Structure formats: structure tokens, C-alpha cells
Amino acid sequence: MSAGPLFRVEGLSKRYGARIGCADVSFDLWPGEVMGIVGESGSGKTTLLNCMAGHLAPDAGRVLFDMKDRGMVDTVTMPEPERRRLVRTDWAFVHQHARDGLRMGVSAGGNVGERLMAVGARHYGDIRAAAVDWLGRVEIAADRVDDRPRAFSGGMQQRLQIARNLVTGPRLVFMDEPTGGLDVSVQARLLDLLRGLVREMGLSAIVVTHDLAVVRLLADRLMVMKDGRVVETGLTDQVLDDPQHGYTQLLVSSVLQV
Amino acid sequence: MIRIENLAKEFVLHNQGSAVIPVMAGAHMTVARGECVALVGASGAGKSTLMRMIYGNYLCDGGSILVGDVDVAQASPRAIIALRREVLGYVSQFLRVVPRVPTVDVVAEPLLALGVAADQARARAMDLLARLNVPERLWALSPTTFSGGEQQRVNIARGFVHPYPALLLDEPTASLDAANREVVLGLIEEAKARGAAIVGIFHDEGARARLADREVDVRAFTPARGT
């Protein structure tokens, strides 16, 4: 484990014309930490995630990542080829809809192997073995390796997307509503899987969701967003059990009890 | 091991006319290694609130809470996470777990988080579950469907699987039969003997008399409330 933070956001802002996407967001993420970002639709959490992950160009601010030997480097201003390499190796992005993160016309094994080939793997046997190993880790049977993702259930597609993302051993994973749209029983399985992977691989993750039950089980720390701004941050259970901001209090008290 | 000074807490309910409810003021308390302090006071006096503040689950509005050399009232989330992983255990009255995860893994998780090898962590978890009379056929099942007493024992196993130097126990013997109550009291006595500093809430008077070296009445910390 390195001595400093893995990832640092400083004064990140994005506007859509006159409307605020996200405004002046700053935080540090340390190795092995999971940060949850919650807020209702339109609160700016997805804009923030896309700015951090390099999908959107922010209007202001820096997004720093620990490039090992070179220390913290601003990924917003780094040369495009270098950023593309980062996105294929040390970073991963899990989309809410698995089809946005998978190639639906390529087999499950191909989906996982493709990301390995993108970082230079060439030996077919090795790639296939790594793909089968990763499918096993996300509980997809080896006999499904040649099937295409469209033959998979929603939960399996999501697990396949996770395998495709993690096969290169990234250090930071961005997740956009990773359990959204899944049955609760499938959600639970996915949460257990993600927690195990975070622990075993020492991954750091940033998880955007509107589901407070998901962040309670998955995230160490929590950021609450409203109208593009961070209104409250802290330990996840502290923010949920002793919310300080009026908006967070409303959010927490609005959850239906089962 | 635990030193609380001049602790204050109020709740501000922004969506209910910004009502300010002071719940604690001027709280003082120390717990030495190997000592068990029982929090007493009527229901609603703030026993659980104080315990949650020590754990960092509730924020403080003033004062300090030293656990070892970490001031929970000031510490960063990252420092509190590390404190909870290594130093400060908490057995709450509620079991909150990812559904579907087998009981043995729920109990072993605190050790896995500390980097203990999986087989070793599971072996330790199984020892504790056996000692707490959780039937072996249940170990591979998720505890979410267990009875209240079984869940309570899973919770206790999870809280004792790592020898935390400081422990918070919220009604550890509630909903247990006499035999299991005896096992839990034994576990707590062993923790004291190895030097753990313990803060407990015990409505079970027999348990309190046997375990607690001192009582702290939290009503002394309850601010006068306007009517």
C-alpha cells in the first residue's frame, strides 16, 4: 500500500450552459477505500462520475491519480494516448446497463479476453485461461464461455461486465448504479461479489447510486449531492444514522422500511 | 484506554421546524484496560447515543473521545475505519449483513479485513459459533432468516472473533437462554482478563453485577430540556 491517496479531485465543476452539472467538488480517495455518492436524479452525481472518469471534460478543476513512479498526475490535462492507456489498465468503469459496457456480439470469453488483448496479451491459451478464471470468480460457469451476453440474464450480464473490467487488475473502479435494475436477490449476490473483490484485490472504488441500502453495505465513506453540490460527507453509517444536512435527513427518512 | 471529556451532542431536525434537541452535555468517562463500565439510566437517557458516539456512528458537537490515541470526535473517516478494524469492536442489537452470505463468512469477515488467511479466519469463526451453540447445519446459511437469539449469537461471534483492545456491548445477553447467556458472560470475562476496555449496556442486572467494575449514570450528562 502506498503512502498517499490513490485519487484526488480538486474543485471539479461542470456546467451545461447556465445550469450546474456539478460544482466545486473536492475529495481524496485512499487505496482500498470505497466511496459512495448518493443523491436523487438530477443531483449531478452521474455528471461528476463522468467528469472523474474522463468521459466528460470538466470546466474547472483537477482529477489526480497516483501514477506510481511519477506521483499524482492530472488526468484532465494528460496526453490523450496516456489517458486511454490508463482507462484500459489501472481504471475500470462499470456501467448501469451491462450492454453499455459489453460487446453484445462477442462471446463472454471474448469480452473478457478483449480487454487483456488491449493491454498487449497475445497468447490465445493464456487469454482463454484468464477469461475462464475470471468468469468463475464472478460465478459464470465455464460452459458458458462461448455464449454471447445477449443469452445471459441481467444479473449474469452485470457479472460479466465486472469480470471484463477487473481482468486487467485495475486499481480504481468507477461504478454507475451497479445494482440498478436487478432483482434484489441478484443485487445481494453482486454486492457480496464486489465486497470480496474489493477486499482481496485492494481495489478502490467510487460507486454512484440512489440506493441507500447498497451504499450502507458497500461504501466506507459517503458523499451526498444536491443541485450539483456536495452537501454532506462522512463515514457511511454516520451520514445515514446521524445526517446533519436537511436534505440528507429528508433522503434518509424517505426510505421505505421493510 | 477510553477517555471521554466534556462531550456534547444535539440533534437538529431541519425538516421539523429546525427543532434543536440537546441530548448530551458535559459527559465525562474513563475506562481502563481490563475494566468494564456499565452505562445506566432510564430508557431514552442517552446510553445508546453515548455508545454510538464512541463508535463514531454519531457525530459530536463538542468535547473529545479518546480511544487509544485516536480522538473519535475529531478523526477523519479513514482514521475511524482503521480504529474500528483494529482496535474498537461493537456488538449492537442489530445484525446488518449482505443477504445470502453464509454465517461462517459473516463471522470471519472482521478477520479477513485484517488480512488473516481465509482458512484460519473460518476456523476461528467456527470455534466461536460452536461455543455459542449455533447449530453446525446453519453455518453455511445466511443469518438473515435466523431467530432473534441465533442472530444475536452470530452478532456476538462477529464481535469477539478479533481480540479488540476496546469493546462496546449493547445488551449482549438480550434474547438469550440461560445456557447461552452463560457462554456470552464467559466470553466477556475472558475479554476483560486479556485486558480489553469494555463499555456495556446491560438491562440484565445479574450480568451487570457480575461483569461491571463501575456504573456510569448517563442522566448526569442529560441537559435540562425546555418544555
Task: Write a structural description.
- The complex is a heterodimer of chains A (258) and B (227).
- Chain A contains ten helices and ten strands.
- With 258 residues, chain A is of the alpha/beta class.
- Chain A has a six-stranded mixed β-sheet, sandwiched between helices.
- Chain B has one domain: 3-Layer(aba) Sandwich (Rossmann fold), CATH 3.40.50.
- Chain B is built from seven helices and nine strands, in the order βββαββαβαααβαβαβ.
- Chain B starts with a strand and ends in a 10-residue tail after the last strand.
- The model of chain B has no long low-confidence stretch (mean pLDDT 94).
- The A-B interface holds A 30, 33, 184-185, 188-189, 191-192, 195, 199, 216-217, 220-221, 234-235, 237-238, 241-242, 244-246, 249-250, 253 and B 11-15, 52, 56-59, 77-78, 80-81, 96-101, 112-113.
Question: How does the SSE layout of this entry go?
Answer:
The complex is a heterodimer of chains A (258) and B (227).
Chain A: E1 7-16, E2 19-29, E3 34-38, H1 45-52, E4 60-66, E5 72-74, H2 80-88, E6 91-94, H3 98-101, H4 108-118, H5 124-137, H6 154-166, E7 172-176, H7 184-201, E8 204-208, H8 212-218, E9 221-226, E10 229-235, H9 236-241, H10 246-253
Parallel strand pairs in A: 3-8, 3-9, 6-7, 7-8
Antiparallel strand pairs in A: 1-2, 1-4, 4-5, 9-10
Chain B: E1 2-13, E2 19-31, E3 36-40, H1 47-55, E4 62-67, E5 70-71, H2 77-86, E6 88-91, H3 103-113, H4 118-131, H5 148-160, E7 166-170, H6 178-193, E8 197-201, H7 205-211, E9 214-217
Helix pairs in contact in B: 3-4, 3-5
